[in-house]
Amino acid sequence: MTTTGIVDMETVWKEVEKDEELQKSIEQLRMNPEEESKSKWENERLLYKGRVVLSKTSSLIPILLHTFHDSILGGHSGFLRTYKRMSGELHWNGMKADVNERILEDWTMDFIKGLHKAGGVNVIMVVVDRLSKYAYFITLKHPFSAKQVAAVFIDKIIRRHDIPNSVITDRDKIFLSNFWKELFPTMGTILKKNTAFHPQTDGQTERAVYGRPPPPLLSYKDRKTPNNEVESLLKARNLAINALKEKLFVAQNRMTKMADFRRRELKFKVGEEVYLKLRPYKRRSLGKRKV
């Protein structure tokens, strides 16, 4: 499946014509066609590293994201494979972020109840990523409320994986509560419930198997809700994530400075003699060291 084969090039060009930023780039390329640049103007097409350029507001982007990820052809392949497929022939500003945002994971949830108490807990909440089969087994103390379950879900799942597209649950009273039904749609999550005659739609939580590593934390979707508790929870989460990002940025800069403090850039020429430090081999069978 090729990207340019399913793209309406006439639509691409019309949208590029209306994009002021791209038109400035085209004008510069026309004035200086010999100038070295990653962008080229060839055969009335704007290319970036040989790839067709779309406007970042193109109406084709949602269609492409759906085709190369959500459809049968896309196969929910995950970020890297989806991005590589699309970026092989197409490019637009912010493409990587758009693809990353699209690859939101969907989850199923269920409770294992009636267990003997161990450490004060007697319930396990099983949460599974539908695509990767990555699973979480979260302990709870009975009785618990919808608000407590939501708080645990946000702390253990959303904090690590961002907001899922959808969550499949059974018809437990927790999942039928007004708080639960108000919270998740407000965050942009679709709630899906299995039926009494078709419970196997949520069967993977019982077949939980570890898969690939969890995906990176994505951007937070801000919404408004008339429910004060939900609004407070969302605002607190937003503040926590922003604070975490700032602290991570500061920590990374500090580590970079510390690592670079005792380093200096070394340049060697062919034929120069240098000292080479050889560390002892762990295997005693290797008697001689060789460079």
UniProtKB/TrEMBL annotation:
<protein>
    <submittedName>
        <fullName>Transposon Ty3-G Gag-Pol polyprotein</fullName>
    </submittedName>
</protein>
<dbReference type="GO" id="GO:0003676">
    <property type="term" value="F:nucleic acid binding"/>
</dbReference>
<feature type="domain" description="Integrase catalytic">
    <location>
        <begin position="99"/>
        <end position="265"/>
    </location>
</feature>
<dbReference type="InterPro" id="IPR036397">
    <property type="entry name" value="RNaseH_sf"/>
</dbReference>
<dbReference type="GO" id="GO:0015074">
    <property type="term" value="P:DNA integration"/>
</dbReference>
<dbReference type="InterPro" id="IPR001584">
    <property type="entry name" value="Integrase_cat-core"/>
</dbReference>
<dbReference type="InterPro" id="IPR041588">
    <property type="entry name" value="Integrase_H2C2"/>
</dbReference>
<dbReference type="Pfam" id="PF17921">
    <property type="entry name" value="Integrase_H2C2"/>
</dbReference>
<dbReference type="InterPro" id="IPR012337">
    <property type="entry name" value="RNaseH-like_sf"/>
</dbReference>
